[in-house]
Amino acid sequence: MNEIKIFSPATVANVSCGFDVLGFCLDTVGDEMVIKKTQEKGIKITKIEGFNLPLEVKKNVAGVAALAIYNDAKPECGFEIEIYKKIKPGSGIGSSSASASGVVFAINELLGKPYSKTQLSTFAMKGEAVASGSEHADNIAPGIFGGFTLVKSNHPLKILELPTPTNLYATLIHPQIEVKTSEARDILPKSIPMENAITQWSNLGSLVHALHTNDYHLLGDSLQDVIVEPYRSKLIPHYNDVKEAALNNGALGCGISGSGPSIFSLSESLETAKKVEKAIQEIYSKTEIEFYTFTSKINADGIKIL
Amino acid sequence: MNEIKIFSPATVANVSCGFDVLGFCLDTVGDEMVIKKTQEKGIKITKIEGFNLPLEVKKNVAGVAALAIYNDAKPECGFEIEIYKKIKPGSGIGSSSASASGVVFAINELLGKPYSKTQLSTFAMKGEAVASGSEHADNIAPGIFGGFTLVKSNHPLKILELPTPTNLYATLIHPQIEVKTSEARDILPKSIPMENAITQWSNLGSLVHALHTNDYHLLGDSLQDVIVEPYRSKLIPHYNDVKEAALNNGALGCGISGSGPSIFSLSESLETAKKVEKAIQEIYSKTEIEFYTFTSKINADGIKIL
Fold it and tell me: Name one Pfam family in it (chains A, B) (predicted).
């Protein structure tokens, strides 16, 4: 195989009570990438469509991730990368992560799959760090593993694959405003009340149990965030209205995707997820803010070969 | 049925990363209780053996729990309670909780089992509050449900039954010193670093996953407590030596049972658990402190009819 085309999906990190550790993978929206083996050694980015991003390898998330796997594998060839970017950078649904994960997945395929998913994640994290300033796997993991993932630890990297309820759908809204990652980070307190922390870990434990037992009711009951949402929701206009509309229309839960501004809802069926999408659209249609919405099955497989 | 004899086991609460929410049930050590229906209405405690505890119903943990179920059920009879107390009060392995849980379990049996386990837990919590000052279910739940339990919330009470790995054994040591519950409570900070809280909930999520996947290695890796242990371990002499000995001898994890002074270890086999017990005994044998140790299978069934 000398060439591969892949779909690298959007992902949701910081899933409610799972701040910094829990993520899941989407299906409807994602980047496409074409990676070609070349006789000439090294990594080249030959094309980026969709958004204006640097072609220079060391300044590009996908480039840096590609270099990480390339320098480890030391193959007798090089690679050319074409990026057809569909996920808007800064949307909060893992745009940079999709580029980083996709390229390492593709190169691994072209090399004959010498690396494990965890190893691929460590390479992708090098790329992710270009965008976010630190290596973390909360969007990388759901992209590479698919479904729901729990990042048990970053150093050493330990990723757990959680079960994905088959009838679970996500509804996303991306209000086209800028939430600076640095602001989203700085707004969080350095220390938190013990009582709230207990509520949070009790909910996360319950959520993991709910995924294992396919218990949608408990899943909804556990999708609470008493730590981060009270702060970050202030950065997203009409957040509370969106959440209220989602829950009133049958969503199991609703929260901030990544560090925002996207908002995710989870629903038990496609029908409910679509109803939720419509209700959320109505909220934002009344504002001046541009937005788009989409509904997606939870993608249990992660990155796909096209 | 006019009379019932039951075994109400010791329990471990605050299991490492599951502070305030996670508990498990022991098998080897527990109270025995005999409950008899009487024609005369009301609750009477007729006998307490083992430890010096109040016979007066309203001052006794079992008495208050019995009154709670009795006043709700309003039966055409009364009940007499005999308590053969084996779990030393203040040991940190759910002594008061065993009395409270046992009596409501027994009365429910004598009434023909009208109540769910969750309802029984709410009655037992009224008794537990006599000893601890507040209603909480972290020792009650594992006694009544058996195995590992997660208290998702106290109000409303929501208890989750987690799977119990079949080959899991606990080793307990009870150093016979007094740790005042109030001191164990006051020593804890009111707020905690965000970073540590994230570590704690990541570990709890992992632990729940480990129980569901029967993954002993991950279980061991998740049995960490970065929040409470650093404070409360100071109240237990030789805590660090005990922990080191347990881990060096193959224990998956080691932590403070309840608010101490008992220390629990978890091991994958009876053989390892016994080896851990011996190693821990050696540590405490060199001190002036009286202690006892025991090893127990995790009791998946909870309270038993004898």
Answer: GHMP_kinases_N
Q: How far is residue A127's CA from residue A129's CA, in Å, rounded to a whole number?
A: 5
A128 is catalytic: yes
Burial A146-161 (b: 16+ CB within 10 A, else e): bbbbbbbbbeebbbbb
Does the pLDDT at position B181 exceed 80?
no
pLDDT at B136 over 90: no
B245 torsion bin: left (phi>0), alpha (psi -120 to 50), beta (else): alpha
Give the nearest chain A residue to B208 (CA atoms): A205
Across A37-41, A74-78, B51-55, B240-244, least confident range: B51-55
Options 3.30.230.10, 3.90.550.10, 2.40.30.10, 1.10.3210.10; CATH for A3-163 is 3.30.230.10
Q: Which CATH fold topology does B3-162 show? A: Ribosomal Protein S5; domain 2 (3.30.230)
Instruction: Supply the Cα-derived Rg of chain A in whole angstroms.
Output: 19
For residue range A138-184, what is the model confidence (pLDDT) as tens digits?
999 999 999 999 999 988 999 999 999 999 999 999 999 988 878 88
Q: Which of A11, A32, A122, A128 is catalytic?
A: A128
- pLDDT of A161-170, one tens digit each? 999 999 999 9
pLDDT band at B39 (very low <50, low <70, confident <90, very high): very high
Instruction: Give yes or no: B181 in active site.
Output: yes
Q: How many residues does chain A have?
A: 306
* Structure token pair of residue B195: 């970073």
**Average pLDDT for chain A:** 96
DSSP assignments along chain A, one per residue: --EEEEEEEEEE-S-GGGTTTEEEEEEEEEEEEEEEEESS-EEEEEEEESS----SGGGSHHHHHHHHHHHHH--SSEEEEEEE--SPTTSSS-HHHHHHHHHHHHHHHHTTS-S-HHHHHHHHHHHHHHHHSS---TTHHHHHH-SEEEEEETTTTEEEEE---TT-EEEEEEES----HHHHHHTS-SEEEHHHHHHHHHHHHHHHHHHHHT-HHHHHHH---SSSHHHHGGGSTTHHHHHHHHHHTT-SEEEE-TTSS-EEEEESSHHHHHHHHHHHHHHHHTSS--EEEEEEE--SS-SEE-
What Rg value do the Cα atoms of chain B yield, rounded? 19
| A-chain residues near B162 (CB < 8 A) | 209
CA-wise closest residue to A205 among B248, B159, B117, B232: B159
DSSP conformation class of B16: G
Residue of A nearest to B185 (CA): A194
pLDDT, one tens digit per residue, over A7-47 is 999 999 999 999 999 999 999 999 999 999 999 999 999 99
pLDDT on residue B155 = 87
**Is the ipTM here above 0.90?**
yes
Task: Looking at the structure, give the CATH architecture of the domain made up of residues A169-297.
Answer: 2-Layer Sandwich (3.30)
CB-CB under 8 Å, A207 with B212: no
Positions of chain A with pLDDT under 70: none
Q: Report the DSSP pairing between strands A169-175 and A304-305.
A: unpaired
